[in-house]
Amino acid sequence: MSGTRASNDRPPGAGGVKRGRLQQEVAATGSRVTVVLGAQWGDEGKGKVVDLLATDADIVSRCQGGNNAGHTVVVDGKEYDFHLLPSGIINTKAVSFIGNGVVIHLPGLFEEAEKNEKKGLKDWEKRLIISDRAHLGKVPMGLWEWPFLAPSTQSSGDPGGPTWSHMLLSLLFLRGLKKMKSLTHCPLSSPIHTPAAATVFDFHQAVDGLQEVQRQAQEGKNIGTTKKGIGPTYSSKAARTGLRICDLLSDFDEFSARFKNLAHQHQSMFPTLEIDVEGQLKRLKGFAERIRPMVRDGVYFMYEALHGPPKKILVEGANAALLDIDFGTYPFVTSSNCTVGGVCTGLGIPPQNIGDVYGVVKAYTTRVGIGAFPTEQINEIGDLLQNRGHEWGVTTGRKRRCGWLDLMILRYAHMVNGFTALALTKLDILDVLSEIKVGISYKLNGKRIPYFPANQEILQKVEVEYETLPGWKADTTGARKWDDLPPQAQSYVRFVENHLGVAIKWVGVGKSRESMIQLF
């Protein structure tokens, strides 16, 4: 029969299922994951919300980013700092999963775990699963740790990037390196190399720093990256030259050949790089045996988790909406999707398995590095927020720029992520203020605009319209339920909630788990 297919000639699975049954099967999507995402420029307190939700979770996952993220969790008075490990690793009853969307710096992973072990973290290796499809960053560095190449954290006007004097000195130094045969022959190497740097060299991290130097020299500004090699690693992934966990655990000779090719590619682009290839491969081989018991097929692991016995699965987003590679304040962004779409691509799960999406919002706004910041307060208010909020980065130690809460940013983040509810953190930092301003809209050339500008030059020019609210001038750190908050503090929370049209589920008034007030 030409041009048609007989009923008995259907491919397997194409017939014999009634539409009603098919719809029922499609509806049975399995468990749904709960997602926690940053709604500003990061540092909102995502780790605290994750820690709160992880107390009864079965699986806590990371889906993107690398050790450029920093989450602080306080449990029983102890501060734990996490960069690659999911914050939920503290829960001894939960499995922690690092998905394929994460870029993994293996030395950093083990160093982070060892530091937290000293604070009380136990048996983490038995509870950590790593996707075989996750990409590798390369082993420890040296170059950017040198003091005169390191970015200044005290640069006025640009706390996120190197000063011009640092950059000029760096460029002169790097030119000189081209004439040297080896970094180890440099007379400065002995007193300033770290123990790790004497053995191995992390070229992705070094390239990250070199690219910042180039940007400063060519454009007069840099992005202000964390120098953790995240961008170069994602670049290798996009260029299809990257190396994954599954490659490391397979034929090591083949892995070594590809590693050498990748190293040579970077050396051809950056002639100043001196890479101890054999030393790095030796370390990577050791890491391979250590992580082998933790590695699983990530897609199958998540499928089993979603479609087996019901489980509570939590996804911990790194970075934040305004740092997203597509939706953030480009180019001053990270190299991954930090919005809800990154959950699907970074874990290998379909959209219908996304359940609640919680946005975490600081009660004011902060930003690390350069870029437009409409509500920034370069005055005594900014200084007060910075000092009271201890606003410096967990990963870099850089000071954060501070300003009033910006509802335009939050509306935009909600458009992209579709938040189910919000967590409003660090409300207690505002305790001492007699009045508090909130940015409610933008004007451009005298006209109100309903959207968040993509172009940084335009965003720099917007005029913020503020609403001024009364402060409460009272200590809220002891509040443990809604009624404990002063009326003006309650009004502030409701003002934010009403303007965004999104319910606020938690209000944070301190560092501990107990300081998160749950409203419903």
Automatic annotation (TrEMBL):
Active site: 43 (proton acceptor), 71 (proton donor), 237
GO cellular component terms, semicolon-separated: cytoplasm
Protein name: Adenylosuccinate synthetase isozyme 1
Gene3D superfamilies found in the cross-reference section: Adenylosuccinate Synthetase, subunit A, domain 1, Adenylosuccinate Synthetase, subunit A, domain 2, Adenylosuccinate Synthetase, subunit A, domain 3
Major subcellular location class: cytoplasm
Lineage: Eukaryota, Metazoa, Chordata, Craniata, Vertebrata
Designated gene of the protein: ADSSL1
Function statement: Component of the purine nucleotide cycle (PNC), which interconverts IMP and AMP to regulate the nucleotide levels in various tissues, and which contributes to glycolysis and ammoniagenesis. Catalyzes the first commited step in the biosynthesis of AMP from IMP. Plays an important role in the de novo pathway of purine nucleotide biosynthesis.
Family from the record: Belongs to the adenylosuccinate synthetase family.
Catalyzed reactions: IMP + L-aspartate + GTP = N(6)-(1,2-dicarboxyethyl)-AMP + GDP + phosphate + 2 H(+)
Residues engaged in binding IMP: 43-46, 68-71, 226, 240, 319, 334, 398
Native source species: Myodes glareolus
Localization: Cytoplasm
Self-association and partners: Homodimer.
HAMAP family: Adenylosucc_synth, Adenylosucc_synth_vert_basic
